Please model this.
Amino acid sequence: MWKKLYEVLSRLLTLTQKVERHDKEILGLQQEVQNLTAVVQRLVYEIQRISDRETHERDKMQLRLENQLLRFERRLSSAVKDEENNETN
Model:
């Protein structure tokens, strides 16, 4: 009987130690998950900033291209007018 009581108490102590160890491991894992979540949130923010910056750069490039096309069209139209004026004279 004493032997069974000793075995039960021994198992209870072992289980208690394991539960405490698992609780500590769970707390550590929860902290890791929080850290990883923070890192992922920062990455998402950085990716969004990069995407916004790229969109802005594409818009600027499109405006530059339109500006150069307009300048080219203006030079073409003035060259055509000059030719017309030379032909009528």
Q: What stands out?
A: The longest helix spans residues 2-88.
